[in-house]
Amino acid sequence: PLRSALHELRGQHGAPQHVAAARVVPGGAAQIEGLAACAQRVFHTQVRIGAPLNITGLTDYAQEPYYSTAVGLLHYGKESHLNGEAEVEKRVTASVGSWIKRLNSWLRKEF
């Protein structure tokens, strides 16, 4: 079921059959046993589990892969604010909102 779900998501987003670069699986879902190996077979490329980079402070807690999405969003927000990229932020927010809606729809359908 996981492999078919990855194939379906890849098809929905127009991902190419063969990708030259490695893929990184971030977030809590990256902790699913066998996910990296499954994704490697689906995407026909190297896959690794991502962990947050460039963090200070609570590093004992925030360096786990399940924090990578949150840390990445915080880094993006900081950079956008410092660089005054309000328009880019609006587009990304709309894109993320659209992606979350599609993910929610898929989860409801599958589970």
TrEMBL record:
Keywords: Cell cycle, Cell division. PANTHER family: CELL DIVISION PROTEIN FTSA (PTHR32432:SF4), CELL DIVISION PROTEIN FTSA-RELATED (PTHR32432). The lineage of its organism: Bacteria, Pseudomonadati, Pseudomonadota, Gammaproteobacteria, Enterobacterales. Pfam families: FtsA. Signal peptide: none annotated. InterPro entries: ATPase_NBD (IPR043129), FtsA/MreB (IPR050696). This is Cell division protein FtsA. GO terms for cellular component: cell division site; cytoplasmic side of plasma membrane. The keyword Cell cycle applies. The gene is ftsA. It comes from the Bacteria. GO terms for biological process: cell division. SUPFAM superfamilies: Actin-like ATPase domain.
